[in-house]
Amino acid sequence: xxxxxxxxxxxxxxxxxxxxxxxxxxxxxxxxxxxxxxxxxxxxxxxxxxxxxxxxxxxxxxxxxxxxxxxxxxxxxxxxxxxxxxxxxxxxxxxxxxxxxxxxxxxxxxxx
Length: 112
Hints:
Helix content: 10-25%
Order of helices and strands: HEEEEH
Number of helices: 2
Strand order of the largest sheet: 1-2-3-4
């Protein structure tokens, strides 16, 4: 069972995605290497981390995605922002900020 006691532990958990056991590498070519990391929480939510290394860059590009389970009404945005929690129903290339995932982990700490 995953127990993350505070914001610092939640951020460390996300930053240490290389230690997650669910990793798969579906895309490779001579110019780019993409590695996907995934963590499934007890409540059915997922965090996907995409790490893309390109031949002409020294540091990888890292994107975080939060995927909500059916029935989860989490929405970090103001009701007048034009955003809805439907944005967290599938993977997107843009991803979301780590702060949103930390907020989710905080608000759902008893469920994850």
